[in-house]
């Protein structure tokens, strides 16, 4: 028998994966890197906004419209683990640092970035 109370408690205690994701052109060498407290939601939001033409990054939006969704990859670059003692609740600074690190790595490998 399924313990609904236990399942609800597990759901409430589940934390989303946070880290850095990328929207990358498969045909070119251009990308957009984004940090997020909820990677799954951010990646879904990117897909939705790009499909409906509402992404604020006009350069990426134009490329998506011109080349189509199949010309791009949206994926996780790195997951930032939560502190084990669970005392920390604000990870904005760590996420921003992780984003900068990834932008530097990608730039060093010749990747260019979609600018607003």
The DSSP helix count reads 4
Order of helices and strands: HEEHHEHE
Residue share in helix: 40-55%
> Sheet with the most strands?
4 strands, mixed
CA radius of gyration? 17 Å
Q: Overall 3D geometry?
A: globular
Number of strands: 4
Overall mean pLDDT score?
A: 92
- Strand portion, in percent? 15-25%
CATH architecture: 3-Layer(aba) Sandwich
* Structural class by sheet pairing and helices: alpha+beta
For the record, what CATH class applies?
Alpha Beta
Keywords:
116 residues; alpha+beta; GIY-YIG endonuclease; 4-stranded mixed sheet; globular
Topology:
Elements: H1 4-13, E1 18-25, E2 30-36, H2 39-51, H3 58-67, E3 72-80, H4 92-108, E4 112-113
Parallel strand pairs: 2-4
Antiparallel strand pairs: 1-2, 1-3
């Amino acid at each position: 028998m399924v313990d609904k109370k236990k399942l609800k408690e597990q759901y409430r205690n589940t934390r989303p994966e946070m880290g850095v994701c990328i929207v990358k052109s498969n045909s070119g060498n251009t990308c957009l890197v984004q940090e997020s407290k909820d990677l799954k939601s951010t990646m879904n939001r990117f897909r939705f906004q790009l499909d409906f033409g509402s992404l604020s990054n006009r350069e990426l939006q134009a490329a998506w419209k011109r080349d189509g969704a199949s010309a791009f990859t949206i994926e996780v670059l790195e997951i930032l683990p939560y502190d084990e003692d669970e005392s920390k609740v604000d990870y904005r600074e760590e996420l921003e640092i992780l984003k900068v690190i990834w932008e530097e790595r990608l730039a060093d490998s010749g990747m260019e970035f979609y600018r607003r």
